[in-house]
Amino acid sequence: MKKTFLLLLTFTLFYCNDSDDRIDLTVYNPELTVLENLDNGVSAFSITEALGVASLYGVEYAGGFIYHFDQAAGFLYIASDYSSIGPSSWGDHFDLTNSAEIGAGLANTQQIVDGNLNDNSNVTNGLEFGSDDYVFKIVSDLEFQNYDDWFIPSSGSMEAIFENLHAQGLGEIDENLFYWTSTKDGYSPYVMSFSMSFGGEAFLGSCFNANSALIVRKI
C-alpha cells in the first residue's frame, strides 16, 4: 500500500511540474526570431518592447515586408512590389485632394474607385478612362499571396517604405520604376521613385502617365 502511494505521489508531482513548465508561445521568446514570434501569435508590442520597433522592419510576413508599426492603434503595415502587372493607368481624370498620412491609403484607394464610378473623363491619351482597367480598381479587386485586402499606399506610406525598407536594402523594390501613390492634390497625383537620387520623397506626377504598383495591407 505504501509503495502504491509513493508511486501515485511521484506521478502526480511529475505531471504537475511538466504542466507548469509548458512554454506559452504567445509570450515573447528571445531565443526565437521575430518572424517565429509573430507566427506564434506574440504581439508586435511585446516584440518592440524587447527589441525596438526597427526589429520589425523588413521581416517578410503576411504577404510582404513589414514597413510600419502603428504603436497607437496596434496595426502592422505590410508592403509588396506588384510591378509584375506592368505599367497601369491612374483612371479617370477628376479633381480630388486626399490624405498623405501613413495608413490613409485604404480610404484613398476607395475614394479613387468611387470617383471613377462617378466620372468618365473624356480625355484622349491612349490610357484608360471609363473602364475598370486602372491601378486602383485592379488592386482593390486583387487576391495576392492569399490575401484580398490590398490597397495603394499614401505618399506618406511610400516614404516610410523607402526609409524603413529600401534605404536599408530590404523589400525588393525596383529602383528603375515609378510607382503610383494614392495621394492626390487636385488633378495631380503623387508618385514615387525608389532611386536614391530622388531622396526618398514622393512628388507630383501626372494622371496621364502609366506607372507601376506597390501594394500594402494592414493587420
What's the short version?
By secondary structure, the protein is of the alpha+beta class. Helix content is 29%, strand content 19%.
How does this structure look, described?
This protein is of the alpha+beta class and 219 residues long. It has 2 domains: 60 residues, no CATH class; 138 residues, no CATH class. The strands form 3 sheets. A 4-stranded antiparallel sheet has the order 1-2-3-9. A 3-stranded antiparallel sheet has the order 5-6-7. A two-stranded antiparallel sheet has the order 4-8. The N and C termini lie far apart (59 Å). The N terminus is likely disordered.
Number of separate structural domains: 2
Individual helix count: 6
- The tally of strands reads 9
Categorize the overall geometry.
elongated
- Rounded to the nearest angstrom, the distance between the terminal CA atoms is 59 Å
Give the H and E element order.
HHHEEEEHHHEEEEE
Bin the strand percentage.
15-25%
Q: Low-confidence runs (pLDDT<50, min 5 residues)? A: 1-20
Mean pLDDT: 88
**SS-based structural class?**
alpha+beta
Largest sheet: 4 strands, antiparallel
Rg measurement, Å: 24 Å
Estimated helix fraction: 25-40%
Output the strand order for the largest sheet.
Answer: 1-2-3-9
